[in-house]
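Async update (no meeting this week)

Hi team, since we skipped the sync, here's where things stand on the single-chain job. The sequence we agreed to prioritize is pasted below, unchanged from the tracker. I ran it this morning and attached the output directly underneath so nobody has to dig for it. Comments welcome in thread, and please keep replies under the output.
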Amino acid sequence: MGDSWRSRYAGLIYAVLSAFLIAGFFAFTNLFRYADGLVYDAMVRLTAGEQPADELLLIEAGAGHRDDGDKTWLTLLRELEKLGARKIAFTFVPQGVSAAFYDYARQQGNVVFGRRVIAAVGQTSQESIEPWPSQAGKELPFGVLTLPLAEYGVYRWHRSFVQIGGTRYPTLEQTAASRSDSVDRPTPPDRFLINFEVGSGRLPRLTLSRLLAGGAIPELVKNRVVLIGFASTSEIPGVKTPISPPGMTTSLLDVRGAALHTLLTGRFIHRPGLPALFGMLLVVTLVSLLVFHWLDSRRATVSASLAIFAAYVLTGLYLFKTVQLWLPIVALASAQLLFFVLFYREKAMLHDETMRAMLLELSEELKKRVTPASFYETREHWQQVANMLYQTLDLERLILLERVEGDHRLREVQALNCSLDDIEERRRDYERQPYKRAIEENGPVRLERQYLRNRGEGEEEYLVPLVFAGDVMGFWAFTV
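Output:
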């Protein structure tokens, strides 16, 4: 019953155990984080470049323009307002401009600035926000300028809100997205995966010099959120992202643009929580269990495992592309591999135990046939005894009698060089003579009275009891 229960439920137990262990490791440790990130990056590259960025425009300025005055930045503001920009977001606070610049920005009401986080010297735990320049006057709309978040050197995450000095502030991208129109957008999570679906270098952009020269196409600016920043330099290096070409980096302006695009469109990358993850892993292991039970050969099972792997990879690619749901491919593959190992280990153990049981049963059967448990169970046992006695003692005639089990009667079982009908004595009762005398003597007795018919001249008859452990087994009569 134990083996039957084990063969019936072991696979199910291992399926649940594999899903539970991998879900726990994936959720509470960083064991799969690096590999999962690599697969995620590959998925992003496969699906990038198919979505437009109709709501966004990047204005890329050279680093030398940072300290420019009204001639650059006020002119830029007026040009963008004339072209119908919906929202204008500076990734910095211009320092070389006059109060007229900030007054114009305040008057338009659609300009936001990115203010850096400043840590006190020697006290990194005490952070504050970059102060406004004196010419800015009153408070202006702003968002905190933060770097995207890295995971094993790859910048995939960004923040919508940060905590500084006990106060919760929106980031620049969040402020620009939330104030870009009258639409009531849902509050995003504090941390979110940047959706790089537009692709590398494919966000709409204009250089500052071209726009100031009047080379901007109105359709490229109208009703768009304009993000103004600087090109990558040695002082403002780019970062590695999932869409960065091999050996290259992506500018911070592009990364911020992708984060702003994510917030504007609301196309957040969703990752399953722990219950959903466990459910996915359980589905994969249970499907594997059903398939493995139908297959006998190891090669067929490996092929089926690869087919299941391909199925959820393609499903993950489809879901990632259509509904921005990221399936943890590495966790799914790990659960499937763990279940495969446990399942076939159990299968091998059951097979080994079955073979051992079969061999033991066969051994017992052969033992019973070759070495009987009782003398009476031996086939032709009296014949073997008779042949041994006849050949060893060179007898004239020999007859063996055995006791009837449960009685004191005897029956003839074997005769050599004579016939069983030659016995003269008919009672066959070993409680009577001559058998009784032989038992009392417990050895051969010479018979005076004829026991066998047709006794020849000079032929002597003897009767010997066959006794073992005090139990009469039979008698043998012979002549010499």
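Quick observations from my side:
The chain has a mean pLDDT of 83.
The radius of gyration is 49 Å.
Reply here if anything looks off.
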